[in-house]
Write a structure and sequence with these properties.
Largest sheet of chain A: none
CATH topology of one domain in chain B: Methylamine Dehydrogenase, Chain H
Number of helices of chain B: 1
Distance between the termini of chain A: 24 Å
CATH class of chain A: Mainly Alpha
Strand order of the largest sheet of chain B: 3-2-1-32
Radius of gyration of chain A: 14 Å
CATH superfamily of chain A: Cytochrome c-like domain
Helix content of chain B: under 10%
Helix content of chain A: 40-55%
Oligomer: heterodimer
Strand content of chain A: under 5%
Shape of chain B: globular
Number of domains of chain A: 1
Number of helices of chain A: 5
CATH class of one domain in chain B: Mainly Beta
Number of strands of chain B: 32
Radius of gyration of chain B: 22 Å
């Protein structure tokens, strides 16, 4: 049964997500929605920051997005989140944003 | 007994009036709490510390704000999705809703209560609507996202432009559809918010793209522009700003402005008369709101992540932090009851609103709310700049 659950979980999530523990993943989803949402909108449709829907980010390399999340975008209001996120977590968020379906 | 119409009418009136009196109520102690995820508003009664209803169907309410009609019965809600919604606190219903832009940030109502102006990110600029019908009255493109819109006495609005660093004054007094526009350029890089002082005289613009703030004296003709605090924090590295501070709900206490710093974990004290820095207070994090209790004796501050579980209270005379509260995860907003007896705190991640005694700071009551953000009491209807 546990094996089946793990199999279903593996199907449901992108490969990189496995590197973040489920409890932390829940926190990261919350962070994207609420804290990224402060500037990018609860539904990621943009605000002071640009839209970050999967459609708006289509074609962007996940590693580039992860670097942007960690170090920010100089000259804009986008801060670096390195103090609050590990590199794995930033990559997880990048993959999460790029997922076609908003989970 | 012979039928007497007069007696019948009197009897009917006597029967009807007690019921009517029970149904009637004022709006002076009512308010609205934004439930940002659900797209709904709680109608609350702060005398009773109670929810009296919920209004649904307002769309995306992340970063939603609202203003009140002069009667304190109707409110105009500005949603992130560009929605402008007029709601009735007494019937707890949406009166009218228009989606007027792709993405909006805030709004203001004119001093006569006739015009509602909405500040937009996409497509930028400002749109002005008839407060009665929500029909479009004027569309003013500005080639920029706009922030910090406020009502200026004389059926005017002031607004700052994020991309171009300007302030526009829109004077709708002669012809609401054709405002007379005064454009003030060179205000500073990337205004992120602005406030109007309670006397309607000074419009203060906070800058993100460079250090300092800009004050505009609206009593002068043409309005006089003064940069101030241009040096604050220049000697220190900027700390990341995980949420933009808000200037509305500004603080003027004891002849002094208390303003949230940007990129510094400090409250900046500025002499209101000559705009010079008086002092700074070190805080627990990046301040978001710095609100004076209505008696102006204390300033209450909440914070950007990761310190958004805290509230600090700063004494205006000593300018020292006298208390640090930890109400819970995601303290997004604070609203004092009109005379400052109690304070309501929205605690987003714990789905509740706390009501505290604003002097002892003791917890008095809690109200369940779905991811609450802004709290707005109807006394705002009668205050300039709100």
């Amino acid at each position: 049964m546990a094996r089946l659950a793990a199999f279903l979980l593996a199907l449901a999530l992108p490969a990189q997500a496995a590197e973040v523990a489920p409890a932390r993943a829940a926190e990261l989803r919350h962070m994207v929605r609420q804290d990224c949402g402060s500037c990018h909108g609860l539904r990621r449709t943009g605000g002071l920051g640009s839209p970050i829907t999967a459609q708006a980010l289509a074609g962007r390399a996940p590693d580039d997005l992860a670097a942007l999340i960690l170090d920010g975008l100089p000259g804009s209001a986008m801060p670096g989140w390195r103090a609050l996120l590990t590199e794995e977590e930033a990559r997880w968020i990048a993959d999460y944003l790029l997922q076609k379906e908003m989970p | 007994m012979k039928f007497n119409p007069l007696v019948a009418i009197c009897a009917a009136v006597m029967l009807a009036f007690p019921a009517l009196a029970d149904d009637l109520r004022g709006t002076g102690d009512l308010g609205l709490v934004v439930e940002r995820e659900a797209g709904s508003l709680l109608v609350v009664d702060h005398s009773e510390r109670a929810v009296i209803g919920r209004i649904k169907g307002l769309g995306d309410l992340s970063h939603a704000s609202l203003v009140y009609a002069p009667d304190g019965r109707f409110a105009f809600v500005f949603g992130r999705d560009g929605g402008l919604t007029k709601v009735d606190l007494l019937t707890r219903a949406v009166v009218k809703r228009v989606v007027q832009a792709g993405n909006s940030i805030g709004g203001a109502i004119s001093d006569d209560g006739r015009l509602v102006a909405v500040s937009n990110y996409d497509p930028g600029g400002v749109k002005v609507f008839d407060a009665g019908t929500l029909d479009l009255v004027a569309d003013i493109p500005m080639g920029s996202k706009t922030v910090g819109i406020a009502d200026v006495p004389g059926r005017r609005f002031a607004v700052a432009t994020w991309d171009t660093g300007e302030v526009w004054l829109l004077d709708h007094s002669a012809d609401p559809a054709k405002p007379v526009i005064t454009r003030l350029e060179g205000i500073g890089a990337n205004p992120y918010d602005a406030l109007l002082t309670g006397d309607g005289r000074t419009y203060i613009v906070g800058l993100f793209g460079e250090k300092g703030l800009t004050a505009i004296d609206l009593w002068q003709d043409p309005p006089k522009v003064t940069r101030f605090l241009a040096d604050y924090g220049r000697d220190q590295p900027d700390l990341p700003v995980y949420k933009m501070p808000h200037l509305q709900g500004w603080t003027l206490a004891d002849g002094v402005f208390a303003l949230p710093a940007v990129g510094l974990h400090q409250l900046l004290w500025v002499d209101a008369a000559d705009l010079t820095e008086i002092a700074r207070t070190d805080l627990a994090g990046q301040p978001v709101f710095a609100l004076a209790r209505p008696d102006k004796r204390e300033v209450w501050v909440n914070f950007a992540p990761p310190d958004n579980d805290k509230v600090q209270i700063v004494d205006v005379l000593s300018r020292e932090v006298i208390d640090t509260l930890t109400p819970g995860k995601g303290v997004l907003h604070m609203e004092f009851t009109p005379r400052g007896r109690e304070v309501w705190l929205s605690i987003r991640d714990e789905n509740r609103v706390e009501i505290r005694d604003a002097r002892t700071r003791a917890l008095l009551a809690e109200i369940p709310a779905q991811a609450p953000s802004g709290i707005f009491f109807t006394d705002r209807a009668h205050r300039m700049g709100l």
